[in-house]
Amino acid sequence: MIVSLLSSILLISCNQNPKKQEYKEWNGEEEFQKFLELSSIARELFYPGARGEMGAIVKNETHMYLFTKDKHKVVAKYYEKNLQENGWKIDINESDKGGTLLGFEKGKYELIIFAKVVENAETKIEITHRPF
């Protein structure tokens, strides 16, 4: 349930009218490296050892998709610990066998991280950072 609901929300958020939304997207590992060079928040939120697959900036929102061999609960523990140590307040922590949904707040920003099980025993990490 969590998996399908959040995937729908993130997809809608990322796929709004590009011309109207000042949209820029980087796809594939090579392009993703360029995205990391441009976005300090993306560098801060990048999961160690992950493979970056997509990064996008829509106005003042940052979105990225990462893949790792780590289990979704390991990914969630990493973000819980590190983000709270950096001043983020956790306000959502939901988990089931398909994935973990985390929500954080800091100042005028919210951060949504969804780690879900995908093919090939990988975990897909979907991250959205945006102002309230």
What does this structure look like?
This protein has helices at 2-14, 18-21, 28-38, 40-45, 72-85; strands spanning 23-27, 51-58, 61-68, 89-96, 99-106, 109-118, 122-131. It has 132 residues and is of the alpha+beta class. A seven-stranded antiparallel beta sheet has the order 1-2-3-7-6-5-4, with helices on both faces. The longest helix has 14 residues, at 72-85. Residues 3-19 have low confidence and may be disordered.
**Uncertain segments of ≥5 residues (pLDDT<50)?**
3-19
Q: H/E order of the elements?
A: HHEHHEEHEEEE
Number of helices: 5
Counting copies of identical and different chains, the oligomeric state is single chain
Mean pLDDT: 87
Strand content: 35-45%
Biggest sheet statistics: 7 strands, antiparallel
Q: Rg to the nearest angstrom?
A: 14 Å
Biggest sheet strand order reads 1-2-3-7-6-5-4
Strand-pairing-aware structural class = alpha+beta
State the total count of DSSP E strands. Answer: 7
Helix content: 25-40%
Q: Can you tell me the overall shape?
A: globular
What is the rounded distance between the termini? 25 Å
Protein traits:
132 residues, alpha+beta, 7-stranded antiparallel sheet, 7 strands, 36% helix, globular, disordered N terminus
Condensed summary:
The chain has about 130 residues and is of the alpha+beta class.
Walk me through the topology:
Layout (H helix, E strand, L loop, with lengths): L1 H13 L3 H4 L1 E5 H11 L1 H6 L5 E8 L2 E8 L3 H14 L3 E8 L2 E8 L2 E10 L3 E10 L1
Antiparallel strand pairs: 1-2, 2-3, 3-7, 4-5, 5-6, 6-7
